Amino acid sequence: MTFLKKASLRFLYAVKTQFSKAKLAFGLKSGLVKSVMILPYKGFGNQHEIYFLGRVLRDRGIAASHLEDGKWKNFSKMYKRFMSWEIPNVRVKAEFQGFRQIATTDEEGYFEIQLQSQSPFHLDSTWQEVKLELLDQVVKNQGTVRTNNKVFIPLDPMGFGVISDIDDTIVPTGATRLWTMLKTTFLGNAHTRLPFPGVAEFYQALAKGKGKKDAHPFFYVSSSPWNLYDFLMEFLEVHGIPKGPLMLRDLGLSREQFIAGSHWEHKLKQVEKIFEIEKHLQFVLVGDSGQHDPEIYLQVVKDFPGRVKMIYIRDIKVSRHPDLLAIATELHSLDVPLLLIKDTGEAAAHAASQGWIPEVAIEPIQAAAEVS
Q1: Would the CA dihedral through 334, 162, 44, 144 be positive or negative?
Q2: Less Cβ crowding at N or C end of the chain, within 10 Å?
Q3: CA 293, 5, 83, 111 torsion-angle sign
Q4: 110-116 and 161-164 as β-strands: parallel, antiparallel, unpaired?
Q5: What's the pLDDT tens digit per position in 93-152?
Q6: What is d(CA 169, CA 300) in angstroms, rounded to the nearest whole number?
Q7: Quick one: which H or E segment has residue 22?
């Protein structure tokens, strides 16, 4: 980065920080900010470690959506998600099985929890709850601000994990077409936005394997902003897509970058974070050809040899075929197959051939995938 760019970045970041402080001070003084909330993002861990992020924000009371909600109501909720009021420099306490950590929110209201124990945690299920409490007073008559966060911890023995992209992998978003993406994001809701045909059925079958509950746990990584977290979690639930930790990113201006992290850097970092913590799991990786999922997954294979069993790539960009052929060839030399799929039915047939889902699941998935 040139000196001029660095100077511009420092100046713009200082302006942004001062504006955020003034905005929050005005909101507190005027009464616009009447209550605050801890918004935790589902986490993951192993028998000795738990990891997740969260954010402290003004509570704007964004309720769940309904199928009959109109475009204006959808836009209003999405506006509230993006026009957030972040609460910086406050402490959040996390407690789990006698272990405690206190984290302080950054300028954007984010905090990070990473609880560690030398002795194994006591686990009776794959989903555990971590208690969270805000330790500092932000508004008058605040009262106690508490919540719980769910954290996925695999129990032995488990099968492989699945890491899936969302945009143009699970749901059509037009991520490569800005105007289309903005319209679908701001005017739709979790009910009206529909996944690709057959995805829910395939993911359900893959999660269960051949009958064992949670045989193949799911993790989701997307370049969408954290502002969409509750929307995307609701989307997964509404459409019967297996729940799992969801890793997004902050798109705002940072000290180091005009946009806080590129698609490539963000996704690679988050996928590899999952690999580092879920160190006893192998993984199937699912993405699309629209952006750089194949290149990112190739790098993951190189960084974690022997940990990737399979890569499925939804084919949405024909012009990328020469690049994909070169990547598939390199992956083959590393003993990791890449399958370029036109629809979910193709992935289901392959998964059944590997014994990952039952044969009887293929026909319903393929039937669903053919629905236009």
Answers
A1: positive
A2: C
A3: positive
A4: unpaired
A5: 999 999 999 999 998 999 999 999 999 999 989 999 999 999 999 999 999 999 999 999
A6: 18
A7: helix 3-30
Judged against a pLDDT cut of 70, whether residue 13 lies above it is answered with no
| Residue 21: φ, ψ to 5° | -65, -45
Query: Which amino acid type is present at position 92?
Result: V
Q: Are strands 127-134 and 110-116 parallel, antiparallel or unpaired?
A: unpaired
Q: How many Å is the Cα radius of gyration of the chain? A: 21
Which residue is associated with the tokens 């809701």?
A: 189
What tokens does 146 get? Answer: 């508490």
Question: pTM of the prediction?
Answer: 0.91
Residues pairing with 132 in the sheet = 94, 147
Q: For the chain, give every domain's residue range.
A: 23-152, 161-369
Q: Are 350 and 306 in contact (CB under 8 A)?
A: no
How many angstroms separate the CA atoms of 232 and 166, rounded? 9
Non-local CB neighbours of 8 within 8 Å, separated by 6+ positions? none
- Alpha carbon distance, N-terminus to C-terminus of the chain: 47
Residue 220 has phi, psi (to 5 degrees) of: -125, 135
**Contact between 140 and 146 (Cβ < 8 Å):** no
Angstrom distance (rounded) from CA 340 to CA 330: 15
What single-letter DSSP state applies at residue 83?
Answer: S
The CATH T-level fold of domain 161-369 is Rossmann fold (3.40.50)
Nearest-5° Cα angle at 248, 261 to 17 = 55
CA atoms within 13 A on the CB side of 330: 13
Secondary structure of residue 153 in the 3-state scheme: coil
Phi, psi of 256 (to 5 degrees): -100, -25
Per DSSP, which regions of 1-66 are E strands? 36-40, 43-46, 49-58
pLDDT > 60? residue 246: yes
Q: Are 51 and 277 in contact (CB under 8 A)?
A: yes
